[in-house]
Design a protein that fits this description.
By secondary structure, the protein is an alpha/beta fold. The chain contains 14 helices and 16 strands. The longest helix has 17 residues.
Amino acid sequence: MKTITVDLAAIGAAAKAAARRLSFLSTDAKNLALLGIADGLMASTGAILAANARDCEGAKAAGLSPAMLDRLLLDEQRLNGIANDVRAITALPDPVGETIESRRLPNGMEVGRVRVPLGVIGSIYESRPNVTIDIAALCIKSGNAAILRGGKESLHSNLALTAVVQRACGDAGLPDATVQYISDPDRALVGELLQLRGTIDLLIPRGGADLIRFVADNAAMPVVTGGIGVCHTYVDASADLEMACSVVYNAKVRRHTICNALDTLLVHRDVAPALLPRVAAALGGARVELRADPAALAILTAPGGAPEGTVAVPATPEDWGKEFLDLVAAVKVVDSLAEAMAHIDQYGSGHSEAIITEDYSAAERFLREVDAAAVYVNASTQFTDGGQFGLGAEVGISTQKMHARGPMGLRELTSYKWVVRGAGHIRPG
């Protein structure tokens, strides 16, 4: 049996001490560290991409799926985007110390609430090395310490990225333990990490359903669950079909390996004969396989129903409610908005759902009744992203309702404390 050599108790104690200092650190000091991270990413591009290439080679040899390989990959464009996201965080208001509310009571006391950091944020994640930078940067700006544990498939990338973060924090005068990375791939460490109640204030898992379920079932501290996206786009009877084709194509094809990509297309029966051949032509050009219900399949396989080369096969029961993370989409014809929403209610994961319509009342009903972290009218679900929502980046996308929902940015990494100002007040009898 392998002996675990990582002292998680010491890591946790160092993180708690760092969090205390970070909680009252100036905005300027935190921004200085963030700018150092962004500049360091650019200065270390060669080393980071070399480390990532090593990870990608190992992942291919291990037989990881194309979706996982895409999540793992870094290139100059992606790295530049990560650096720009970090710079964007520096421009955002610092939430720490923000007065949420303040009022004077009849007895003259002033009572208010002020934002404070959560403390120590732990994250266990898979594949995506950009998560290392996203969580580190948001934790720094929100005054939290971070303990990170990425997957073994991205180890070399994460170590290279963490080195940039830690160097920038040191140069800016932040505590040494502001961001710590657990590099030992021993899976037993995950179980031990999940028991650090009293040290880790919030745990954020990011990865597949199995990881998220395991963390939620075994963690001794609060957990934010999410990231699993079964996302629908419903094309209503009144939809602009050209717009619908454009939005559906973007939602599925722009990046098909992310959690906010389209999984199921729902189409009103009145527009299905006109829309589905056009959608099939667009998606077929991107090699998207369509798994269609009988009504949709009849349209797609009829003469002139879909261009030659379109892959359209019968849907199985398992295709509804499935997060494909691949060039695959389920297609279903529905008779009404109500039926579309009932399907979403049954099979959605609470992530991102969209309607394409020119009917104001249908749009408002969809927004009001569909229960998801993000609901859209006439827009691609691929916008569910911290950067796109103006948060700079995100530590994750929560599909639960406590304490945060949707993309989690700076404010979602804070709590509050009550601040009471008196003048010798005592509580009577």
